[in-house]
């Protein structure tokens, strides 16, 4: 009877062991490893979603074939977000509630990740996305969010460097009007502005836009002057944009299309028709170094899984996209972290429900979520996409690649790093760029849209037959610019130095520009006048594409227009009458030499005479043997200047005389020059030399009507009643010659180029004093950020840097002198 209880106890032990084994088997999924539940949320209807799912499945198979003895194994639960934020969040809640997932891979869109990352923060479940690139997703706002891809802001400097290297100065942004599309804009615009690139227009394409809406927007872009477009869109919308752009003729010569890495990273899996439409596009993408893991067998195995999920689609024969590689490496990173954290006991904790609690509050909190997050971000390894490093909770990228879509595929153009900028080659050992950087010649050649190898200049005058509108106005000095109307054709006829410089600059441009002159009248009517400021302002109002003439570069004008480099010298000076001062001093003949010079000359003169007398007397000169007499005194005084040096018998005396004669000739020349200057030049002197003294005296000042000089004089302190404007040089001459007592002026204040012409015509009685004020000179005015400015500036520098400007000045200025 005692053995019965022992038997029963043994049977109960066997039953308990069996049940425990069953439970353990069920818990381990029948494979001997603890299941680590992971949710996957993708848009399975999109190309990115399909590629990612195949990569995730292959990654799970490969990882556990390499690590068969691991105690944990990822159990993947896939959900389709269908491109909806609501559906994605619903799937995340369902995965957490029903499967107690310890991590979620995805979601695919940044807008979905924004919501789900908050769910991850509440439940302490790491959210790892390899496609959510929005810069707004940060550790501060989403502490459990990990970005296994590039932050969109990482690429903006590479795009700006690329644009600067090719010399483009304006770009148009084309983007999805979504969180993804808008997220990059502040960072991209800042980078472009830092490299002096202007963004005249931003084209946001709504998700609800129809094909007709998109085509209308493309026609709007085609009507603009800018020909460089940066596209930041999803693959679905970008495919439609490029296909329609090709139909609209915007994939032809002269256009530039740049794609961001969101599209460039998946260029390998786009349809052949889309890639054909994108021919000539350049883009920025993540650089994937060569690896033995990415061999043909890998692509074959990946394609088998891809076709298992997408049986009606053809396999990818080239390579999978970078996004697919990131999805693969993300699974490996998560599997390694799961093994380190392990599966033990109850891994979830429910909060006690309270009043006003929401459904999120009822979700269980992952106990090991923080530990799992730490293992994920601290894990670094060499994956198939390169170095997979998620420190700082996002993928650390050191190199970006510049590509060119051509011939149904893409080819390498260059590399970019934040340290070295752009270059053609990369040192694979150090992952550092070799050679100089940040200039276009360092990159491989590019085939641009329209099969062109010539670098597009980035802008065009779009409308067929449209001409460059050149604003001109007559100057008081026709040598600079003169305008008139043809009585037959009513066309504007122009001539002058400014016109010749402008036309010479256009002829030197590497492209042809048709233009027409349009006259601006600064004369006004009897009650008002229109100034040069008004003329320049017409450029800002877009009535002219460029304004040429004798336009001075002024600070207030640079606020609304840009200027070329000046083509004349600068400065403002005064024209004043010359006063004739006759010197009535009777002793003026003594002033050419100083008192010291007179005294020294007399002493040396006497010394020379005495020396000669003594030498001759000691040598027995018969004329000097008598006692000292008046005759001998005459010889002493006048022998240095007499012509009787042949009476000197001693050679030494003749030497002394020659020295004196040399000094005497020098003194005579200096005296003659100084005395002549005192009698002529010093008799003509400016009436005034100080503009501030004129202001204190209340002098009247003349200037050109409509000139900025009126404001300059008022700033100095002149009262408006003392300032008199005039239209022509003849009026200025008449006013200055009459003087203020006869209703004229005491002085003229003009710009230096005008003064030179004025004095050439009225050379008697006036002189220039100054300059009293610095100015930048005459230049041409163009709209702000005009791409034409740099080209014309370069050619003006070419003209003023050689004999062309000398020849033109002789034609218009010296010709006028000879005709007088």
TrEMBL record:
Question: What CDD domains does the record point to?
Answer: GluR_Plant (cd13686), PBP1_GABAb_receptor_plant (cd19990)
Cite the Pfam families for this sequence: ANF_receptor, Lig_chan, Lig_chan-Glu_bd
What is the membrane topology noted in the UniProt record heading this document? Multi-pass membrane protein
Q: Which N-terminal stretch is annotated as signal sequence?
A: 1-21
Give the Gene Ontology MF terms in alphabetical order. Answer: ligand-gated monoatomic ion channel activity
The portions of this protein that span the membrane are: 596-615, 651-673
- Where does it primarily localize? membrane
Keywords for this entry?
Answer: Glycoprotein, Ion channel, Ion transport, Ligand-gated ion channel, Membrane, Receptor, Signal, Transmembrane, Transmembrane helix, Transport
Where located?
Answer: Membrane
Q: Which GO terms describe its cellular component?
A: membrane
Q: What does this protein do?
A: Glutamate-gated receptor that probably acts as non-selective cation channel. Glutamate-gated receptor that probably acts as a non-selective cation channel. May be involved in light-signal transduction and calcium homeostasis via the regulation of calcium influx into cells.
How does this polypeptide assemble, per the annotation?
Answer: May form heteromers.
What is the name of the protein in this document? Glutamate receptor
Organism whose genome encodes this protein: Miscanthus lutarioriparius
Taxonomic lineage is: Eukaryota, Viridiplantae, Streptophyta, Embryophyta, Tracheophyta
